[in-house]
Amino acid sequence: MPRRCFEAPLSDSSADSKSEPNLDASTFEHIKNAKINLNTIDNLHVQCPPPWEEHKLNVDISITKQKKENTSEVAYKKEFFRIKEKFSNHYAVFTDGSKLEEKVAAAAYFPEHPDCSKATRLRDGASVFSAELEGIALTLTEIKKFTKYHKNFVIYSDSLSALQAIQSKNFKVIDIRCLYNLIRKFPP
Fold first, then answer.
1. Which portions of this protein are annotated as coiled-coil regions (predicted)?
2. Do residue 28 and residue 77 come from a single domain?
3. 10 close to 27: Cβ distance less than 8 angstroms
């Protein structure tokens, strides 16, 4: 059985008995006092993919080169249609994340198969960044159904921060590691 993140030793014989417990031990004690069954908590294993398992991801953020305050809506639409034409042989999916007060949600929209579109609520108070990444994760989960028929996919997102985090492979963000783990499950 894999080691769970809360199974840290509660005492260290080399440590001074007057020192504060480490975070794992302190957290473990709170969970134990709350009578939470650790076997019901998923132990999320995420790893940075080795180079031979990586899929080629093309993150195109060229539309952001234009300054918002100096660019008309028509210019943005023109640039979007240029990008859309560039990926015209790809299956397109649109994602979004949003927050209203403390309510947070994410969605994935499949224009060619609207019945496959998905939406989900995130925990109250979650960030818009998390919602945007969740929208992309929803998309990746649903795309698996189409890999028999399509080989190339394009995911449209309006979140520059999410796209930059994916592009930079910022594995310090657990949501990014989870996205890459979803991607690794696709056939090469």
1. none
2. no
3. no
Which tokens belong to 76? 């943005």
Phi, psi of 183, rounded to the nearest 5 degrees:
-65, -40
How far is residue 23 from each of residues 9, 19, 71, 121, 124, measured CA to CA in Å?
Answer: 11, 12, 49, 30, 25
CA proximity to 108, closest of 70, 138, 78, 81: 138
**Distance from C-alpha of 164 to C-alpha of 130, rounded to nearest angstrom:** 13
Confidence of residue 94 (pLDDT cuts 50, 70, 90): very high
Summarize pLDDT for 111-140 with one digit per residue, the tens.
999 998 999 999 999 999 999 999 999 999
Residue 30 lies in domain: 1-43
pTM for the model stands at 0.70
Strands 153-156 and 118-122: unpaired
Residue 136 CA to residue 151 CA, distance in Å, equals 17
CATH number at residue 85: 3.30.420.10
Which two structure tokens, joined as six digits, stand for 113?
């198969």
If asked whether residues 8 and 87 sit together in one domain, one would say no
